[in-house]
Every structure is written in C-alpha cells, then in structure tokens.
Specification:
By secondary structure, this protein is mainly beta. The chain folds into two domains: 124 residues, YVTN repeat-like/Quinoprotein amine dehydrogenase (Methylamine Dehydrogenase, Chain H); 82 residues, Immunoglobulin-like. 0% of the residues lie in helices and 54% in strands. The chain has a seven-stranded antiparallel β-sheet with strand order 9-10-11-12-17-14-13, with no helix packed on it. The chain starts with a strand and ends with a strand.
Length: 227
C-alpha cells in the first residue's frame, strides 16, 4: 500500500496491490475524508508491493508494482487526473519484488530499484528521459538474446539482451530479404541487461529478423509486424 496525491487536489489518496487479483487499486480521497470506490488496473501476476513517484517529470505521481509470479515490474504513467495510462512491463529474472522509485544517480529524475527474490538479485533501472532505453544493471553471467515482446506487434516492440562482459555490441533488424532496415545498437556497452524499443511504423507488415553480435556471440530471432 502507498499514499500520495495522485489527482493533484492537494489531498493524499491511497493505492494498493491486489496479489490475488493481479491488479492494483486506486482510491481517491476528498478534503473531508470521503473515499471513492476503487479503480482497478491490471498488472503482472501476484503483485507484492506498490510505489509512487514522478518517473516522467510531469509533476504527478506515477506507479509501479512488483509482480512476484509475473517475474516483472509493471509501470503506469499518471495522466495528471489520477487516471493511469501507458502500461510498461519491465522484466525481473524470476520473481519481481520491492520496487521503489528514487533518484539513484542524482540527475534530477526518478530511477527505480527492485529485487529478484528467487535469484537474490538487486535490479537497477536507470531513467534516461532523452532515450527510450532502460538499462538493467544486474550483471548477467551469459550472453542472451531474448524474444521480443509483444510479438506479433504493431508498430512498436521491445528487444532485450544480456552481455556478461564489456565490449562492442551491434543490434540490427533485417527484412525477409536480408536487407538491414534498422540499427538499434552500434556502440560499446558495459556488462548488463538492456532493452530497446523498435518502432516499425514506416515499414510494411511482414516477417523481420533481429540479430545481436557481441564479442564472439551472435544470435538471431524472428519478429512479426502485423498492421
């Protein structure tokens, strides 16, 4: 459970995680103590906790839940009136727990820290408003290219990968003819797990392939654009 002024009326409201319902509830409070009926929002399976913080820098409180069985953290943005929009599921490894917002790197915006209870990992999400990238500093032991999500997609999907050593990384997208249509990464990266959003709004429906090259590792997976 957490408390904060989510609808900007200068009165604290209440939000809580509903573990059995895989959702969170928002209860608004007025200046004389009257409580609204709860509004429920779906999240990953079995949320254990909830926290409030201004992630997108628009001076209202956004929300994150830690989803144990869902193995992720669900982030919603506040539209300024206490209505939560733009769901974003951020991965943990096996069991998301205890996510909190805080300005970890002292750059003036809210980052997020969570844990994975089954793997005893501390997972650090860095908020960079100038990009659409979230880095997860959880020090993986192996190279891994994950299946994009959602898949099929229209027009945006997320590609996640892990690198256990620092080095030059390339992440490219190709069409069915083998022609490169997008370069998502072409730079040196630190050890960690990363996710990048790919917007294929200017491309036709079809089958595409994304390929990761790092050190001596190379992997390719298929993704499907359906418009």
């Amino acid at each position: 459970i957490a408390s904060g002024d989510v609808n900007n009326d200068a009165v604290p409201d209440v939000v809580c995680a509903n573990s059995s319902g895989s959702s969170f509830s928002v209860v608004l409070c007025d200046s004389v103590g009257n409580l609204s009926l709860p509004t429920n929002y779906p999240v990953g399976a079995f949320p254990l906790s909830v926290d409030l913080g201004d992630v997108d820098g628009d001076l209202d409180l956004d929300i994150v839940t830690s989803n144990f069985t869902g193995a992720n953290f669900t982030l919603y943005e506040n539209d300024g009136t206490g209505v939560f929009v733009n769901r974003n599921d951020l991965p943990s490894n096996q069991a998301g727990s205890c996510a909190v917002f805080h300005d970890r790197d002292n750059d003036g915006d809210m980052d997020m820290t969570g844990i994975d209870e089954l793997q005893d990992l501390l997972i650090l999400f860095t908020n960079d408003p100038s990009t659409n990238v979230n880095s997860l500093d959880n020090f993986p032991s192996d190279f891994n290219l994950f299946q994009n999500y959602p898949n099929p997609f229209n027009p945006t999907t997320t590609i996640k990968f892990s690198i256990p050593v620092e080095g030059f990384v390339s992440l490219n997208v190709f069409n069915a003819l083998g022609e490169e249509v997008s370069t998502l990464v072409s730079e040196s990266l630190n050890t960690g797990t990363y996710k990048y959003d790919w917007n294929a709004g200017n491309l036709p429906s079809g089958i595409y392939y994304y390929s990761l090259t790092a050190d001596n590792f190379k992997a390719t997976k298929k993704l499907i654009l359906l418009k």
